[in-house]
TrEMBL record:
Protein name: LysR family transcriptional regulator
Key words, A-Z: DNA-binding, Transcription, Transcription regulation
Entries under InterPro entries matching the protein: LysR-type_TF_proteobact-type (IPR058163), LysR_HTH_N (IPR000847), LysR_subst-bd (IPR005119), WH-like_DNA-bd_sf (IPR036388), WH_DNA-bd_sf (IPR036390)
Superkingdom: Bacteria
Record-linked CDD domains: PBP2_CrgA_like (cd08422)
PROSITE patterns: HTH_LYSR
Organism: Phyllobacterium endophyticum
Family from the record: Belongs to the LysR transcriptional regulatory family.
PANTHER family, sorted: HTH-TYPE TRANSCRIPTIONAL ACTIVATOR TTDR-RELATED, HTH-TYPE TRANSCRIPTIONAL REGULATOR
Alphabetized GO MF terms: DNA-binding transcription factor activity; sequence-specific DNA binding
Signal peptide range: none
Family annotation (SUPFAM superfamilies): Periplasmic binding protein-like II, Winged helix' DNA-binding domain
Length: 291
């Protein structure tokens, strides 16, 4: 246990690159900290740090030890935090990467409700379309939709959204009735990139329809807006277009048919996650379950 404690002290020194700064952060005398690191080096049998008057640098062995030990120390800290979270509410900064349109059109009220349940948590959200690097960047969790790449990260399925076909009344009046899925091949369809085939099903009947259109868009929000503005037929989750259905701006077509559902995942670097992240994932999952 002593070596684990000394390992945690070494990690703080390596991060700060300074005994003084690390000692201040740890609330212990500089001399005590220096002695403990020296004892750790003697126990290991290798020099971990180059000490100078201004700064410290990691040796090659120190760099390797730091890379391994920081994960061990972090997992030990998280284990203690998770146990403590059973007795008190989680707190801290929750850093989340979110799909832009899904966050704006659907997740925001859920997140607001979560914030009311857990007042000790503050939030930093990244809604840029890029795929953040959960290993290199300080994110606790990323919410992803659709098919995931095999990245070695931990992905938890937290929901599925069925998709249906929608168009504006004005577009439907101008183009005539769309009576069967095959008719979609002759219509303007607003597509996502690399999605020129729509997989539709009606009970056990399935049909793959090749679609085309003037607009190929990587934004669910813009697909919705283009459909509202009479530019074609969209395949979208009902929750995204709920307000437009209620106001009559869009209507569902081929109501007996639906598209393949979109899977929603919470992606983390490791299975051992802080209580704040665990509660957030559980909360989203409970709200995203299809009813």
């Amino acid at each position: 246990m002593s070596h684990l404690n000394d390992m945690a002290l070494f990690v703080e020194v390596a991060r700060a690159r300074s005994f003084r700064k690390a000692a201040e952060a740890l609330g212990m005398p500089n001399s005590t900290l220096s002695r403990r690191i020296s004892e750790l080096e003697k126990a290991i049998g290798l020099r971990l740090l180059h000490r100078t008057t201004r700064r410290i640098e990691l040796t090659e062995a120190g760099q390797l030890y730091y890379e391994r030990s920081k994960r061990i120390v972090e997992e030990a800290r998280l284990a203690h935090e998770q146990l403590g979270a059973m007795l008190e509410q989680p707190s801290g900064v929750l850093r989340v990467s979110l799909p832009v349109d899904f966050a704006i059109f659907y997740l925001t009220p859920i997140i607001a409700d979560f914030a009311q349940h857990y007042p000790g948590i503050t939030f930093e959200f990244d809604l840029t379309p890029r795929r953040v690097d959960l290993i290199a960047e300080p994110f606790d969790v990323a919410i992803r939709m659709g098919k995931l790449e095999d990245s070695g990260l931990i992905a938890r399925l937290i929901g599925r959204h069925s998709r249906y076909l929608y168009a504006s009344p004005a577009y439907l009046q101008a183009t005539g009735e769309t009576a069967t899925p095959a008719d979609l091949a002759e219509r303007e369809c607003i597509c996502m990139p690399r999605a020129a085939t729509w997989n539709l099903h009606q009970g056990t009947d399935r049909m793959d329809v090749g679609v085309r259109g003037r607009f190929t868009v990587n934004s669910v929000g813009m697909i919705r807006a283009l459909a509202v503005n009479h530019q074609g037929i969209a395949l979208l989750p009902e929750r995204i277009v709920a307000d437009d259905l209620a106001s009559g701006k869009l209507q569902r077509i081929l109501p007996e048919w639906e598209g393949s559902p979109v899977s929603i995942y919470a992606v983390t670097e490791t299975r051992l996650i802080p209580a704040k992240t665990q509660r957030f994932i559980e909360f989203l999952s409970s709200r995203l379950v299809e009813t």
